[in-house]
Amino acid sequence: MSVTGLWEGLRRARSTSVTYLNLGRVLFPVVNSNAAQLAWRIALALCQDPVGIEEIESGIDLHTENIHAFGLPSRLIAKRFLFRNIFKGTAYGYAIDPDFAPIGNAYFWQNVIDRFYKKYPKMWEFHEKIISEVQQNGVLVSSLTGRVYRFDRGPRGYNISEITNHPVQGGGADVMKLVRKMIHDVLLEEKMLMDTVFPILTVHDSVMYDIVWKRWVAEELCAIIQYAFQNVHKEWKRYYGTEIAVPMGFETSIGVSWKQLHVVQKG
After folding, report:
1. For the chain, which domains are there?
2. Cβ atoms of residues 142 and 171 within 8 Å
3. What is the pLDDT of residue 73?
4. Kindly report the CA angle at 174 between 168 and 179, in degrees rounded to 5?
5. d(Cα 110, Cα 105) in Å, to the nearest integer?
6. Which of the residues in the chain have pLDDT under 70?
7. Which tens digits make up the pLDDT trace of 100-130?
8. 231 DSSP assignment
9. Which of 132, 145, 112, 119 is nearest to 45 (CA)?
10. Looking at residue 114, what is its pLDDT?
11. Residues 78, 83, 88, 92: is their CA dihedral positive or negative?
12. Rounded (5°) CA angle 104-108-112
């Protein structure tokens, strides 16, 4: 659905909508933009796996592709598996998880994990490298930002999931901070938008805004969001002095409430 098409739908929204505010009879629709596959893209930027990066750049449906690559039953399972294995999931963990246990036992899932690392060998190298670093001194330094992550050793050693999680989730959070800053900087320059666009919050990998009910405001904000995600790598290099070799993606939606969002733009 286009911004224009959605706008006609918003015009017909009932005044009883929970987002209809008594401020001069102005409807405040919600604009929400999700970073697409952010954890996976940051993981690829960290490990520099050429197969994964090429898949992102070519725009293929990664999860459909991995149904066949890993022998999984559905796109949803392939998507969930990929996300968990970014943080080095275990065969036992998959085998006892209610979402994965009906599909196969630990032997089956170990085979899937082996196929994952065979397809993305740099991810295996990255996992082994950072785990080794932490096991030596309890400290990990992100190659993307220089951030220092410190870990506590428990009775059974270091928590592997924490080690693999911190640099990925931390890098994703840094991307979202820069995206918010870039959007804010443009809004400061566009004086007319400052009174019509109101940032609400960041929810995990999303940025959300209330906007005054005017079509040009929605179109301008969508363009600014697109600009931010497509150019965040430039801002990243200026701040951290390193390259993000993986393009960032996004999906922007508009609706009369968070529950009634419709996708209007992807990139």
Report:
1. 3-37+173-266 (3.30.70.370), 48-160 (1.10.150)
2. yes
3. 92
4. 125
5. 9
6. 1-28
7. 999 999 999 999 999 999 999 999 999 999 9
8. H
9. 145
10. 96
11. negative
12. 115
Residue 139: which H helix or E strand, with range?
strand 139-141
Q: How many residues does the chain have?
A: 267
- Going along 175-266, which residue ranges are E strands? 197-203, 206-211, 249-255, 261-266
- Amino acid at residue number 267: G
How many other CB atoms are there within 10 angstroms of residue 206's CB atom?
Answer: 18
162 Cβ neighbours under 8 A, 6+ residues apart: 151
Across all residues in the chain, what is the average pLDDT?
Answer: 86
Residue 214 near residue 47 (C-beta atoms within 8 A): no
Question: Which pLDDT does position 233 carry in this prediction?
Answer: 92
Encoded amino acid at 236, one letter: W
The letter for the amino acid at 165 is N
Cross-strand pairs, 33? 207, 252
Are the C-beta atoms of residues 152 and 170 closer than 8 Å to each other? no
- Order of strands across the sheet with 249-255? 197-203, 206-211, 30-36, 249-255, 261-266
Residue with tokens 């952010």: 38
Unique residue bearing structure tokens 């993000």: 244
pLDDT of residue 28: 61
Per-residue pLDDT at 27: 54
> What does the alpha-carbon distance between residue 91 and residue 81 come to, in Å, rounded to a whole number?
11
- Which residues are CB-contacts of 247 (< 8 A; sequence separation ≥ 6)? 41, 56, 57, 230, 233
CA-to-CA separations, 26 to 15, 19, 93, 201, in angstroms, rounded: 10, 10, 50, 21
Q: Give me the residue label for tokens 């392939």.
A: 78
